[in-house]
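User: Here's a protein and a ligand (D-malate). What would the complex look like?
Assistant: Let me lay out the input and then the predicted complex.
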Amino acid sequence: MKLFVYHTPEEIPSNRLPSCAIVIDVLRASSTIATAIHAGAEAVQVFNDLELLVSTSDAVAEEQRLRAGERGGRQVKGFEFGNSPLAFTPENTQGRRLFLSTTNGTRCSESVRNASKVIIAALINRRAVVNYLCSKKPGTVWLVGSGWEGSYSLEDTVCAGAIIEGVLAAGKTPLAKLAGNDEAIAAVSLYRQWQGQLGELLDCGSHGQRLLKMRAQADVAYCAQLDVLDVLPIQRGLGTFVQLQPGLIEKTCEFLARLVGRKPEQKGDDDGVPAELIGMAAQEELKPQVESQDGLKAKKVKSKVKPQIQSAPQTQQADRPLTQTEQKVELKAIADKVPAPVLEETPKTDPSEAAVSASGMTGAEQVSEEIGEETPTVSPMETAVQPVAMEPTETKASQLEKAKGSMVGEVQGIWSKMTKVNPNYQRVPSQKDK
Ligand code: MLT
C-alpha cells in the first residue's frame, strides 16, 4: 500500500486513478457527510452543480430528502441547509437522502469519483478510515485535500497526516516505504507537530479564520475533534455515499456456513462448498417488499419459485469435497441466477433516471440479497435519482457482471481459506440426506 497526499484536486495526476481515493474536506463537507450518515441519512448525494442538485432531488418526495447548498462558506438562498455538520441530527436526518453541494468538498469528490473505491475522511471519522485502509490494504491510495478554491488548506493536510500516522501505528511498514510522495511525509510531520492542538490549528488556518468571522466557532470546534464518529461514507454509485456495510464477502461466507450448520471457525472444515449448500443457498431467495412508495426493504421470505440450481454431479464418493473448479461452478450458479437488471444501454430519458430490473431492485441489490446480505434500505431513489454512470462502451449490466464475477472469486477464495483440506472429511448431513 502506497499513500499519496495531494493538497487540492488540481494536483492529482490526470492520466491514472488510484485503487482508493480519500476525499478530505475537514471544514466542512467531509465532516458534514460523515455526520449526516452517522445521523442515519439513507445516503448523501453530492453535486457540483446546484441546478442539477435541485432538478435531481425534485424527483424525491420532500419528506425523503434534505437539500444543502453552500458557496463561500455561506448557505445558498433557497436551500434548507448550508454546510454546517451540526445541522444534521437523527431527528431531521434519519432515513432521508441528503443532497449536498459545497464550494470545495463536493468538487473534490467529483474529481476522483471514477476511482474504484472513494471514501470520505475528516478528523471526526479518522479512525474508521484507518481501520478500512488497514483491513483492505488498497494498492495505491490518494488522500486528496479539498483546499479552498484551488489553494492549500492546512486542516485537510493535517487530516491526511493523521490518517497516515494511524496506518503507521497499526502496522510495521516504515513511513519511507508507506509514503508515496513527499507531501505524505510532510503531512505526517504537520500532524505530529499539532496532534494535541488540532482546534488551535484549525483556528489558525485561513478557512478556519473565515468561518470564525462568520460566527461558525461551533462548527470549527466540532470538526477539530479526532476519531469521534465510527462511520465510513463510501461511494456506491457515482457521487452517492452510504455507510460502508460489513464485508459482503465475510457475510457471504458466514451465511453459507450457517446454511450447513457450522461455524466458519469450526475445525475440520472441508475444502469444498458442499453441493447441497449451493441448492440451499439459492432457496434462501430474498424477495423485496415495497413497503411504501418511499422504498424497497429486502425481507427474508421463502421464495415460492425454487430456482433450479443444478448441484455438482454427485460422484460415487459422496464425501468427496468439491474441487476448486466445482466450487467456482456452484458459486457462480448463485450469482448467475440473479437476472442482470434490464437497463437501457443509453438512457432514453433524462440521464439521471436509471431503469431497474423488474424486481424493482438493481442487480447489485439482487446479488447481495440472493446471498443473504441484509442490504441497507434502498429506496427507489437509489435508482430513480442516481445519475446513471453510463460509460459509452460499458452498460451497468456488464459492470454488475464484472462485480459478480469478482465477488464470486473473492467468496471462493475466502471460503477455501475458511475450509481446509481435511482427510477425515465428514459431510454435514443435509436436509435431503435425512
Ligand atoms: C466546503 O466545501 O466544505 C466549503 O466550501 C467550506 C465550508 O462549507 O465551510
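Summary: The CA atoms of residues 172 and 178 lie 10 Å apart.
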